[in-house]
Amino acid sequence: MTKTQDIIIEYDHKAVDWDAEIRFPNTRTFRQYTHRIFNRYPARSISLVPRAIIRSVVADRQRSGSCRVLDPFMGSGTTAVEAALLGCEIYGVELDPFARLIAEVRIRRYSSSDISNLADLSKAIADQWESTAPKTELVPRLANVRHWFTDSQFDDLLRIKSCMYKLTSGDSLSHDFFRIVLADMIRPCSQAERQTLKPYISKKYKKTAASVSDAFKKSSEAHLEAVRDLNDEDPSGRSPVINWLGSDASDFSSNRLRLDVAITSPPYTNALDYVRCIKIESAWVDCGSDESFATLRRSHIGDPSCRANAPNESVIKLTSEIIAKINKVDPVRARTVLSYFASMDCNLRCVWNCLRRGGEYHLIVGDSVIREVPVNTHLILAELGQRLGFEWT
Asked: Which letter does DSSP use for residue 389 in this model?
C-alpha cells in the first residue's frame, strides 16, 4: 500500500520511503525567494526537492561553502536558486537562451542600492513610457507576432520596451531585470489565454487583456519583492554565478573538475513543446527569432524533430519491446522515443564523467504513456545508469 506523507515546506529526502507519496504545495502559490521570477516558465520543477537533496549533500560533506551542484537541464534555474542559498558552486547546461536569462536573474544578488535603483527606474518607466517613441528595430523577430495582439496592445508593449531599453542602456543588471519584467507582461497584455501553456487564442471566449500600465505595475512590484526576499534570506553579499558547461545536455564536460551532486528534471519521452509555449515572450526580450526557434526545437531532447543520437546496444536492448509496440501505430513517435533514450544515455555518461567518486545524480522523472503503450522511463534510465556504474539507491 502506498504511504502518504503530507509535506508543506520542508522534508528530509533520505527519510522518505521509496514507495511514499509526497504532497507538495501548488507551485503557482508557493513563491519563495526568486522562484517567483517569471514563474510562467513551463514544466518548472518543485524547489523543495533540490533543496532537500542539496542540504543532505552539504551536511554529508560537512563543507557547506564548497559543494558543487550541477543541473544538466537547468531550465529557469530552480536548482540554481537552492544551491546559491546554501553557498554552493553552481554548474549548469541549458539550451534555451531565455531560460538561461531567467536563471541568471533569479540567482543574482542585488545590493540595497541596486534595489533602490531598480525601484527608481520602475517609477521612471511608469512615468515616461507613454511619451517614448517606439523603436521599430525592437520589434520581435517573429513573422506573425501581431497575431496575438490588438494594434494598441502591440504598440503599447513596443513603446514600454523602448522606454525600458533606453533607461537601462549600459547597465546589464537593470537591463536584464526589466527584460524579465517585460516578458512577464506579454501574456497578460495579449489575446492569448493565460490558463494554457501554449499561446492559444480562444474564439469562443473573448479575453479582456490587462493594460500595459497595470501589467507593468504588477510585474515590476512582484519582481522587486522577489529580489528583496532573496536578499533578506541571504544578506551575505555573495554574488553567485552559474558556471555554464554548454548548451547540449547530451554532450558536455566539466573537464578535470569534479562535482558533488547533479540534480535535474529532464524532459519526458513525450516532451512539452517548450519552444511554442514561450516563443512570444522569448522573442519580445530578444532571446529568439523564427530561425533560432526552428533550430532550438530540433535540439530539444524528447521533441519529435530532435536530431537523433545514435542508440547503442544497451539502449536498443532495453527499449526494443516498447519501440516495436509504438512503431505499429506511430513510427515517427517510436523513433522519437528511441532518440530520447539514446540522448538520455549520453546525458548519463556526461554526468558520470563530471561527478567525483561517490557523487550523486538525482533524476526527477516520471513514466509516460505513448500511443497507449506504457513507457517505464524511470526504470529504463535507472538500468542505463547502472550499466555505467551508478548504484540505484
From this structure: T
Per-residue model confidence as pLDDT tens digits over 320-340: 999 999 999 999 899 989 999
C-beta separation of 355 from 348 below 8 A: no
Is-contact 128 167, C-beta < 8 A? yes
Q: Strand, coil or helix: what is 230?
A: helix
CB 48 within 8 A of CB 24: yes
Determine contact, residues 325/372, Cβ cutoff 8 Å. no
Grid cell at residue 152: 494598441
Query: What are the backbone angles phi and psi of residue 243, rounded to the nearest 5°?
Result: -85, 105
Amino acid at 2: T
Closest-CA residue to 338 (of 352, 358, 318, 362) = 318
Structure pTM? Answer: 0.91
E strand map for the chain = 3-6, 20-23, 68-71, 89-92, 242-244, 259-264, 355-363, 368-370, 373-375
Cβ atoms 265, 249 nearer than 8 A: no
Cβ of 259: how many Cβ atoms within 10 Å?
Answer: 21
Q: Per residue in 114-161, pLDDT tens?
A: 999 999 999 999 999 999 999 999 999 998 899 999 999 999 999 999
Measured between alpha carbons, how far is 364 from 60 in angstroms, rounded to an integer?
Answer: 21
As to burial, measured by CB atoms within 10 angstroms (0-12 exposed, 13-18 middle, 19+ buried), residue 292 is: middle
**CB neighbourhood size of 119 (10 A):** 14
- Grid cell locating 64: 557547506
End-to-end CA distance of the chain: 20
- d(C-alpha 101, C-alpha 214), whole Å: 24
- Taking residue 140's Cβ as centre, other Cβ atoms within 10 Å add up to 24
Residues 385 and 379: their CA atoms lie apart, in Å, by 10
